[in-house]
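Look over both lines:
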Amino acid sequence: MSLVISRSKYRDSIESGNIAAELRRQGLEVFAWSDAPGATYSPHSHGHDETIVVIAGCIEFEIDGVRHLLEKGDELVLPAGTVHSAVNPGDKPVRYLICS
């Protein structure tokens, strides 16, 4: 599996409130998460593939020295073992779903 970023992939599902159900139908476990403005995560990795879907606000991931800003409706698929860090660069909380 490789890193995948899909812009606005779930925007319509978020608007209709069906996003979590849609992800569960794909066989994913879904956890709701939020971070305050300025929250950061140091570089780390996971032993499993992870999918992030932004519900509101924005979050910036750094992967292999490249920064990726994700906004509402965007999806990031991180393969197991991918080292990444993250920050909420906005002035509002970010809400997102973590799926595995």
